[in-house]
Amino acid sequence: MISTQTELQRIMNDRKSVRKYKEGVTIPQENLMELVRLATTAPSSSNMQPWRFLIIQDEEAKKELLPIAFNQEQIVQSSATIAVLGDLKMYENAQAIYDANVEQGFMTREIADNMIKNSVNLYAGLPEEALKNVIQFDAGLISMQIMLLAKEMGYDTVPMGGFNKQQFAEHFNLPENEFPVLLISIGEAAAPAYGSSRIPAEQLTRFI
After folding, report:
1. What is the C-alpha separation between 118 and 122, in angstroms, rounded?
2. Which of 18, 56, 82, 205 could be cross-linked to 156 through a Cys-Cys bond (beta carbons 3.0 to 4.6 Å apart)?
3. Among 180, 182, 135, which Cα is nearest to 157's?
C-alpha cells in the first residue's frame, strides 16, 4: 500500500519536544498573537473556551519563572513561554458566546437561550475539582494546536507540566478565577530533539 504523506502528517511527525533553543531570538508579538488566534479554533466543552494565556517574553520575567519551573533551561533560552491558563468562571461568557452564534447564523435565538441557561447552570454548579478537570481537558486540546501551528510557522516547542503552579499563580498575580495548566516554551531549536518510540497502535486499540 503506497501512501503519500500529507502536510499535516509531516508537521505531526516533525514536531518534537525541543529543550535547547537559540538564545536572543525574538518572535514578534503579532506572530504570537496569530498563533493563539488560530489555535482558538480548538473545540471546548459547551464551547465555553475556558483557556486564557500569559505570554512571557521579558528577560527578567523569564529569570523569575526559572525557579518556579524547576530550573528547566528552556525557560530562559527560548524566545517565549506561553502559559496556558484556565478560567473557573468561563461560563460567565456564555451569553456573549451564544449571542455571537445567533448573530453569525449558527443557531436560532431559542437554541442559544437554552444553551446559555444550561451552560451557566451546569458549570456554575460543579465542584471546583470537577470544573478544573473539564478545563484541563479543554486546555490540552488547544495546547496541542498551539504546538502544531508553531511547527508550521517554523518554531519548535516543548510542553511542561512540571512547575510549581501555586507559586506561578502568586508570582504572576493571577486573579482568583484563573489557574495555570501548562507551560509551552517556543523558539528556534539550537539542537535537535531526541527521537522517541511509540507503542504500536494495534496494541492500544480494540474494536467491538
Report:
1. 6
2. 18
3. 182
Q: Which residues pair with 51 in a beta bridge?
A: 86
Q: Are 187 and 151 in contact (CB under 8 A)?
A: no
Q: What is the pLDDT of residues 145-193, one digit of tens each?
A: 999 999 999 999 999 999 999 999 999 999 999 999 999 999 999 998 9
pLDDT greater than 70 at residue 195: yes
d(CA 63, CA 73): 10
Residue 125 to residues 44, 81, 128: CA-CA distances in angstroms?
A: 18, 33, 9
**Phi, psi dihedrals of residue 193, rounded to the nearest 5°:** -75, 155
**Residue 51: in which H helix or E strand, if any?**
strand 51-56
Burial 109-118 (b: 16+ CB within 10 A, else e): eeebeebbee
Fold held by 13-88+136-189: NADH Oxidase (3.40.109)
Return the closest-CA partner of residue 43 out of 126, 139, 156, 117. Answer: 139
* Mean per-residue pLDDT of the chain: 97
* CA distance linking residue 91 with residue 125, whole number of Å: 11
Give percent of the chain above pLDDT 90: 96
3 state SS of 170: helix
Q: Is the pLDDT of residue 12 over 80?
A: yes
Query: How far is 131 from 122, CA to CA, in rounded Å?
Result: 10
